[in-house]
Structures are given as C-alpha cells and as structure tokens.
Amino acid sequence: MTLLAGAFAAVTACSSLPYASSEASHDDLYNALGQQQGIALIVEDMLYGVAGDARINHHFKGVDIVKLHQLLTEQFCDLSGGPCNYSGRSMAESHQGMGVDETDFNALVGHLILAMEKHDVPVPAQNRLLARLVPMHSEIVGH
C-alpha cells in the first residue's frame, strides 16, 4: 500500500502543473475507462474491495451501496468526459463528520487503482482519472 500512496502522491504533485484539457482528451479518458459500462464495473470492483477492507469499511456502514455505486459511476463518467452529469452532493457535504483521514483516503484510492488494473485501464489513463479526483482530497479528508 505504500507504493499506492506514493503513486497517489506523485499524481497529486503533478496535478499542480498546468493541464491542457481538451474535448479529445476527455473522450479518450472516457473510452480508456471502458465508457459507462466499464466505469460501472470499475466502481463495482472498487466497492467490493472497500467492503472487504477492515481499515475503511466502517465508513460505509448504513450507506446505500446501490446509490453510492450509481453516484460514483456518474462522477467518474462526468470527470472523464462522458455523457453523464454527477447528481450527488458536494464531496465536503458527503463526507462531513465521517472522520476520513489520509490513511483511509489512500486505502480507497488503492482499491480504485486495483479495480482499474483488473479492467486493464492503461496506467496513463489511470493517472489522468486520479489527477481529476485530486482536487476533491481537501473536501474529503478531515471533515
């Protein structure tokens, strides 16, 4: 998991670099993730990983997992340039009072990376999705 945390730290550092976003790069990421169906499978596998992880699964007790799956699929689809619109609450609002710390956050990111690897998402595409998720870090950790 240290390697995964290091990978996330590298993506976080790179996210401060100028990013030339274009419609083509968004479409490419959406396609690299397997479009909506592929994204849904990635989210499903990530959630299975989280459910089996005693370090973080307590954060999800009482959560409507079907709804969470839907919202995360929407969010990743939207962030990757797909035809979806995220309909959920802000990350700060969603994580208020959960007490998510850096270790919890990195564990979840690790499950996302493993799910993307399972579905043969190329590493550059993985990094692009992670870079688009990085700005949410401050809204999730410590709230």
Automatic annotation (TrEMBL):
Which keywords belong to this entry?
Heme, Iron, Metal-binding, Transport
Keyword Transcription found: no
Annotated residues that bind heme are located at H95
Under the GO molecular function aspect, what terms does this record hold? Answer: heme binding; metal ion binding; oxygen binding
What InterPro entries would the database entry show?
Globin-like_sf, Globin/Proto, Hemoglobin_trunc
Q: Does the keyword section mention Transport?
A: yes
**Protein's name in the database:** Group 1 truncated hemoglobin
